[in-house]
Design a protein that fits this description.
Length: about 130
């Protein structure tokens, strides 16, 4: 069993430039998933270009955290790296609150109060 982590994917030719931020409770399995067509179009195109040149993205763990903190910590890293100028390939950032079917959800409540809403907005429960 692995410790839940926040990670970045980088092009090994540009190791100071993060391209994707993610979370995982099983980093080796998650990296293998990134090498297939899972995920967003922009990230898939980037990985596909790397693989076409016989290069695999590297996964670097940037933080270990508790499972209940994964989503908040992932968003914090996306915010931090975006502010530092990294051209991240993550999909649209989920706002602090979303109103769906007349119900207001906060980011912290997605995974625990309504799994269908969480899934619809791309929040993955650890």
């Amino acid at each position: 069993m692995f410790q839940p982590v926040i990670y970045v994917l980088v092009d090994p030719r540009e190791p100071d430039h993060a391209r994707y931020v993610g979370q995982s409770s099983n980093p080796p399995s998650r990296l293998a998933g990134h090498l297939t067509t899972s995920g967003g179009k922009r990230k898939n195109e980037w990985v596909g270009d790397l693989l076409a040149n016989h290069i695999e993205p590297e996964m670097w763990v940037v933080e270990e955290c508790n499972p209940e903190e994964l989503s908040d910590r992932e968003f914090a890293w996306i915010d931090k790296l975006s502010a530092e100028g990294h051209d991240l390939l993550n999909g649209a950032r989920i706002p602090e609150t979303i109103t769906k079917y007349g119900v207001k959800y906060t980011r912290a409540s997605f995974a625990s109060s309504d799994e269908q809403v969480a899934s619809a907005f791309g929040v993955v429960e650890a």
